Amino acid sequence: MVASSLKLQDLIQEIREAKTQAQEREVIQKECAHIRASFRDGDPLHSHRQLAKLLYVHMLGYPAHFGQMECLKLIASPRFTDKRVGYLGAMLLLDERQDAHLLITNSIKNDLSQGIEAVQGLALCTLSAMGSAEMCRDLAPEVEKLLLQPSPYVRKKAVLTAVHMIRKVPELSDIFLPPCAQLLHERHHGILLGTVTLITELCERSPAALQHFRKALPSLQVVPQLVHTLRTLVMTGCSTEHSVSGVSDPFLQVQILRLLRILGRNHEESSETMNDLLAQVATNTDTSRNAGNAVLFETVLTIMDIRSAAGLRVLAVNILGRFLLNSDRNIRYVALTSLLKLVQSDHSAVQRHRPTVVECLWEPDASLSRRALELSLALVNSSNVRAMTQELQGFLESCPPDLRPDCASGILLAAERFAPTKRWHIDTILRVLTTAGTYVRDDAVANLIQLIGGAQELHAYSVRRLYSALAEDISQQPLVQVAAWCIGEYGDLLLEGTCEETEPLQVEKEEVLALLERVLQSQMSLPATRGYALTALMKLSTRLHGDNNRICQVMSIYGSCQDVELQQRAVEYNALFRKYDHLRAAVLEKMPLVERGGPQVDEEAKESKEVAQLSEAAPVPTETQASKLLDLLDLLDGPSENAQHPPPLDPTPGDTLIHLLDLPCAPLPPAPIPNLKVFEREGLQLNLSFVRPPGTPTLLLITVTATNTSGGDVTHFICQAAVPKSFQLQLQAPSGDTVPAQGGLPMTQLLRILNPNKAPLRLKLRLTYDHFGQSVQEIFEVNNLPVETWQ
Amino acid sequence: MIKAILIFNNHGKPRLSKFYQPYSEDTQQQIIRETFHLVSKRDENVCNFLEGGLLIGGSDNKLIYRHYATLYFVFCVDSSESELGILDLIQVFVETLDKCFENVCELDLIFHVDKVHNILAEMVMGGMVLETNMNEIVTQIDAQNKLEKSELIVYTGLFCISQDFSQAGLAGAPARAVSAVKNMNLPEIPRNINIGDISIKVPNLPSFK
């Protein structure tokens, strides 16, 4: 690079002197032509300079693919200068989608085995940047050898390259797992960092590897070794070379903490080993600088994720709470993110910080307010719903536009889930529609209509509120649609007398008609809105007294409207007036209650990101069919998809829903109810295990486990269940639909059964699967269910 | 995992772009533009974290950036990286650049982008943090540059010149050396360079500075 700098720098200088884009393009095109010529003619001494220039223009966005072969040539050259540029070019210009990339494999192989550290380093770096699966497979043995090289420089690079290889070709984990234990004892920080990354990657990829590293064999004390290393780092203070603002090697500390988190999760033994250390780190870390805070955050997350002592958890949440009040915005951001991760598992602990979180909503910083919004929505529960909704609606009025849709749908969802009264619910939706009507989702209109329709006592109230809102503003389409529908349905209630819940509103018939006509004619109304208004006008012809001339007039005008939909409606309504007047009253009478469309609730819950944590627990698929007859033969003949798709959510009474929300979704550890083997055929076995969670006497959790000891795989395995009418059954998605042969990974599925009447449990199962090339269907009732499952 | 490292100036001109996942060239340029657009909108006193733009993976990825004078250093990472840790990493990277270039400024990055790539390759490899000890990195870079220099001497036959140097001292034989080099028809030996405030001890081969 040294001798060529003038030319490269001259080029750079020329490019900078170009006054316009066109000039720059000219300069670059001329230079590229030279470069192309020089590649062709082959000037071996200076080709590295040419490639360097090419890489520069590539960064600016100009095409440089013709340099790919030159990279290969330079890599193959014996000179370090050439190799350096060649490898850089390979990393920038080649990737696994180009066919040319495989050609470097041989060069890399050669470079890995010759002895110059710098060259080996280059080869490893390139391999880890753009190595494809084929390349990784070919070169794995070489990299493995380099793990044992004396030079720490090469070893640290080899370890990280191994991580990349495992990502590309998971089977290579077998090669790279054994050296890990040895590498953990290294003193060199670079190698340690790489090793911890490698072990983390291995554990995340395969549960078997995780088990391996958790074992406390004398030869393999991974957790104690990590604890020891971390303790050394924490105790040595700032005397080491790796310190960043007074904290010794915070990067290594953070990596170790992350690995400890993975190892300690759901594992008592490992968690115990780390408890003391975590407490030490949490209390001794200097938090005046960013590096210390990084370590502290990682510690807090680890404490919360493993089976740590209760006191330690309290400490951790308090640390987070303290950080929420920190003046540094970065700290507050990370605190909010961490609390969001914790809100599922430690809901009550996070609730304590609710006021601070709500304050963060008002941050001018968009990143912070977004995080605060997500967290606030996750914190809404039945006791704080009124206060929280108040805050959130205040936020909705002033928040930036990109947060409005999320906020609006979050409020609506929370209202739906926790509304204390129907009137409050209607008020809330109304307020959201008036402040952010254009940002709500399409089904909000249908939901509100259905809600109002169902609350008979509130018809008068709703129609008055909506009328006033509409009279003020006819631009918010969802609001206009709902209002039009309401006025049409309950117009009589609007005109007659007073309603206790709102101020007295004197409305004349002519005003109502005038308003609807305004909506019809307004430029701002969508075609759908116009349709609503037209139908509403028609309905009023039966609801309101007096003659209907005005309405008839409107219908005849719209009989020749340009919009086909409106025209059709108007013509039909006209016909109703003229020829079928005797039918008019019957046709236009009050609508029956619309059936609650279940999937809407599920979709809303699924798509709403903010309440993703809670909604995972709430819309658990309900098998409504299961609540029918006990004789289920015809029931279970339905298409198998029914069991898998989340069917409508049963509107169960408030408390049961809350209980379900609080329970974790994962199967609980087995309670003392004995397991039951219910089915066995040709090596496929089905076992049921039962849990009665202590907090909910009516709930029974059944885990269905399918194991296969035969020689053939069981595929397309579907299990459906049915229970008597008084029970409620919810099937969660199974872990998979294949049970591998020879005792492979069993398939599990969780069933939740609610038994409010404490009736004797009866359970029928239907299995369909393919085994040994045949499809099998089995239906049977489960006998000998233990009494403890329902008493 | 670090998905990309971008350095661009206040007007969005890229000074360094390194991607650790394969993207087509067009997509790379679009990502640079999109990232600049997102980052330049930020105020001075807000936090250093942003959701990633759509092209770079949306809300699964974060942009962690620092603004130094005229340059933005942006690391695009996924959720497995510690945000505060990456902030420190950016700081260590800039400090290392400072050590290698002596009071680094934007011009250094402009004219020595290949060197910046080499330094970065010693810190981050394959999207993962490799080494954070500044001294180690600088030692390694120095060793590699020495290797290059030694090759240059061998391959371009400047052995005689190097002998001149060793006899008369580096500052002692500028004219002789320059003429000798001229005769060898190697135009790349710099006679004067207008690169910011870098001082070159002509006529020896330009030092790393």
Automatic annotation (TrEMBL), chain A:
Its domain of life? Eukaryota
Q: What is this protein called?
A: Adaptor related protein complex 1 subunit gamma 2
- Organism the protein comes from: Ovis aries
Q: What is the lineage of its organism?
A: Eukaryota, Metazoa, Chordata, Craniata, Vertebrata
Gene from which the chain derives: AP1G2
UniProtKB/TrEMBL annotation, chain B:
Membrane topology (UniProt): Peripheral membrane protein
> Which cellular compartments is it found in?
Cytoplasmic vesicle membrane; Golgi apparatus
Superkingdom: Eukaryota
Q: Which UniProt keywords apply?
A: Cytoplasmic vesicle, Golgi apparatus, Membrane, Protein transport, Transport
User: Which residue range or ranges hold the AP complex mu/sigma subunit domain?
Assistant: 1-147
- Entry-linked CDD domains: AP3_sigma
InterPro entries in alphabetical order: AP_complex_ssu, AP_mu_sigma_su, APS3, Clathrin_sm-chain_CS, Longin-like_dom_sf
Where is it mostly found? membrane
Q: Which SUPFAM superfamilies match?
A: SNARE-like
Q: What does this protein do?
A: Part of the AP-3 complex, an adaptor-related complex which is not clathrin-associated. The complex is associated with the Golgi region as well as more peripheral structures. It facilitates the budding of vesicles from the Golgi membrane and may be directly involved in trafficking to lysosomes. In concert with the BLOC-1 complex, AP-3 is required to target cargos into vesicles assembled at cell bodies for delivery into neurites and nerve terminals.
Q: Which family does it belong to?
A: Belongs to the adaptor complexes small subunit family.
This protein is called: AP-3 complex subunit sigma-1 isoform X4
From which source organism is this entry?
A: Odocoileus virginianus (White-tailed deer)
